Amino acid sequence: MTEATDAAPAHRYTAELAGQLEQRWQDYWADHGTYHAPNPVGPLAADDIPSDKLFVQDMFPYPSGAGLHVGHPLGFIGTDVFARYHRMIGRNVLHTMGFDAFGLPAEQFAVQTGEHPRKTTEANMRTYLRQIRRLGLGHDERRRIATIDPEYYKWTQWIFLRIYNSWYDEKQDKARPIVELEAEYAQDKRRTPDGRGWCELTRAEQLEILDSHRLAYISEAPVNWCPGLGTVLSNEEVTAEGRSERGNFPVFRRNLRQWMMRITAYADRLVDDLDRLDWPEKVKTMQRNWIGRSHGARVRFPAGSAAIEVFTTRPDTLFGATYLVLAPEHPLVDELTAKEWADGVDERWTGGAATPAEAVAEYRRAASRKSELDRQENKDKTGVFTGSHAVNPVTGEEIPIFVADYVLMGYGTGAIMAVPGQDQRDWDFAEKFGLRIIRTVQPSEGFDGKAFTGDGPAVNSGFLDGMGVTEAKKTIIEWLEEHGHGNGTVQYKLRDWLFSRQRYWGEPFPVVYDEDGRVHPLPDSMLPVELPEVDDYSPKTFDPEDADSEPSPPLSRATDWVEVTLDLGDGPKTYRRDTNTMPNWAGSCWYQMRYIDPVNDEKLVDPENERYWVGPRPAEHGAADPGGVDLYIGGVEHAVLHLLYSRFWQKVLFDLGHVSAEEPYRRLYNQGYIQAFAYTDSRGVYVPAEKVEESGGKFFYEGEEVTQEYGKMGKSLKNVVTPDEMSENYGADTFRFYEMAMGPLDVSRPWATKDVVGAHRFLQRLWRLVVDESTGEPRVSDSDSATDEDRKQLHKAIAGVREDYAEMRFNTAGAKLIELNNYLTKTYGTAAATPRELAEPLVLMLAPLCPHVAEELWQRLGHPDSLAHGPFPVVDEKYLVEDTVEYPIQVNGKVRSRVTVPAGAGQDDVRAAALADEKIVALLEGAEPRKVIVVPGRLVNVVR
């Protein structure tokens, strides 16, 4: 494991010694508040705090009962190294960690065992904290938070009430308090929907109008209802087969009364402000695609007494619309379903049913069992005819109306005009059901496919014929608007955020309902609304096939909590609490602000503290700086939902004047993953990777040959290695150094335990440069014994390491430290002492990566104080100037020799030196070269 043996010197750096000194320094940091970051004001304030600050944040971890494996701390160690470097150069660094502690796993465990999810979660947090403490992470522990603490979710509820009591003013392009909207109606500055004056409306009518504008509102929303589990599921919890991941029960799409967040009001700002963020381009693209802003037209197709409105990005293809398709959930399906089949209806259209109503009902039921993903990706197009027709407004022709599940209510209007000549999905559907196909765009020369999706001149399109796509779009939109058949518009894929969960373990809603079902927001003085105790944490379950069953969440059993008498300003009355809870996303939407001011009982965050840590930078840093956390690190799997929801909440709070930053996270960095080999037996079952043995290029588990595969480290693949065992066997600093040295932080990398020993040996060699292994005393010299070459090597390393730490190139910083250490070991490893002017900078540069051993060496070098706040070595530029330059010499493109010349040599001198080189002379065989090209400072190219 390590190099320690019974005969090893008493003071050799071993895993045992590492464990001892690491524990000692962790206790020292905790006792001395080494990583406390002072605020400008409040209980965490200090005098004379630096104006130069850095706020570094890891993505909120969930405290899993399984604990950490070595893949989890990759980003945590990376942020710690970055934070430590900047702390050493004098910046005020805020770095801490809390827990996103509400979650389904704890609730599922509570359902199975009857143990309160708080007890399980808090036990998991203690395990988590023990593990990350052992890694030596430099967190300000005063700022730790957990979303399950009532004093934390009090403010989550407070933010919900601000969102509820707001509306989006499109003219001002910002959220405003709902009382200002009511004032505009009362002052006749805004017309009511039916034109009556505000004072002519009943209070119930007034409240209904206000509710229709709120940013948090109740709506009948389509959800994934799972009767077998008794709860609504997120899309991620539903398999492609339309069944629950947990339990494999049928899942149905149906409408339920749910809280919604009007995130769509911010769609344009969420897209446009991405340009102001220092985020990976792939993440920005994912968010843009999720929001899905599309420019096009809404077109109305008359259908009896109704009109079907569709959104299309290609209104220029309207002449080729030969049928319409409605999503199964479309509200007009019932109205447009005919009573009988017309004579001669194509049997392919009927689904084998006796009437359109039977066909549509059976089809809708089947569609409700499918996930949205399955509906989008299923290549086998299905559908049924409603028995009704609509009129194509540009041709006047009747076209059939179908119901098909490849159309979703979540995008556009839930209805499409099908143009099979220009859309492959429509082509496949038309082929299957024998529908007309009309090309409206001339395919490019040589095209021999089916639907043509490229650009070209319009054909078979009346007054559009011959026009290009852009001109045709503009012309048809003008025609639609002139004739009252539609209008140009912008559409979004983004839907409002479903914000209700039929679960126990989440934040209660800070509202009550009166006997008429009207919402009453609670005053701030009644916050937090705490979760009650219940005897059973599971929702009421139903027959798995009972799609019409109604949810009965666990909180509905807490009758003494649900029915409550309150005085909300008009005397004591009986109200009913909401028995749903907020989704586990809620607490992670704003946690960076609580890190800033974790003990503030009066405000979400003090404005002065918020401006200091996340406020927009001064104009010299860029006039458009949106503010936010300086560095946010986490996995790309949260690229869309968490980040989008956080940005939405931040923008609402900014609009209402509660914060100065428009964005939560100024800079985002996605770390890679730790990958590892896994092994399966003949049944395809994973076996413990640590018990697999290699022999003759094959792998065996308990004598049976197994198959090796490669993937992300995880419990399910039985290839987990824990940081605890790494720290036990090598020391936490060795583990930290190895993880950072494995490769660039943003790239996934393979784990190989056998390679960890290399990092340990590096630290042993470095230790020996400073400490006498026999006596434990420092072996450094204070005399001026370092040479200029030593100083060149040192300052070259300082320059490179400083740049690497600043740019988060921790693997190359480690490589430069190894290179310097090897040089010093070769030079002074057998000498009586290492010059102090070389040893101390090496120890200081090591500190961000390996803080425990660096602190120990720094102390043994005679420094009583921690090095956590520096100094960090500074480059002396004179030692970076090279006296000579080495030029590779290429002959006909291949390097044949090298020549060293003075750094100031001109091109003629370099040319002469290259041609005088004995290897080049031999290759030229006395002939003059055809050409000699000197690239200053880089190479000489000789052409024979």
Summarize the structure.
This protein has 944 residues and is α+β, with helices and mostly antiparallel strands.
Find the CATH superfamily of the domain at 294-491: Valyl/Leucyl/Isoleucyl-tRNA synthetase, editing domain
Radius of gyration: 34 Å
Overall pLDDT, averaged? 93
Binned, the helix content reads: 25-40%
What share of residues are in beta strands? 15-25%
Low-confidence stretches: 1-5
Summary tags:
four-stranded parallel β-sheet, 27 helices, 33 strands, Rossmann fold, Isoleucyl-tRNA Synthetase, Domain 1, globular, 32% helix, six-stranded mixed β-sheet, alpha+beta, 944 residues, single chain
How do the strands and helices of this protein lay out in sequence?
Elements lengths: L14 H18 L20 E6 L14 H16 L3 E5 L7 H10 L3 H18 L15 H15 L1 E4 L4 E4 H9 L16 H9 L4 E11 L4 E3 L18 E10 L5 H6 L8 H11 L2 E10 L2 E7 L10 E4 L6 H4 L19 H13 L3 H6 L6 E8 L6 E6 L11 E4 L5 H10 L35 H15 L2 E6 L5 E2 L12 E3 L5 E3 L37 H4 E5 L4 E6 L13 H6 L10 H8 L16 E4 L6 H15 L12 E3 L3 E7 L5 E2 L5 E3 L2 E4 L2 E9 L10 H8 L1 H10 L7 E2 L5 H15 L9 E2 L6 H19 L3 H19 L5 E2 H11 L4 H10 L23 E8 L2 E9 L4 H10 L1 H7 L6 E5 L3 E5 L1
Parallel strand pairs: 1-2, 1-20, 10-12, 20-21, 22-27, 28-29, 30-33
Antiparallel strand pairs: 3-4, 5-6, 5-7, 7-15, 8-9, 8-14, 10-13, 11-12, 16-17, 16-19, 18-19, 22-23, 22-26, 24-25, 25-26, 30-31, 32-33
Helix pairs in contact: 1-19, 1-25, 3-4, 19-20, 20-21, 21-23, 22-23, 22-24, 23-24, 24-25
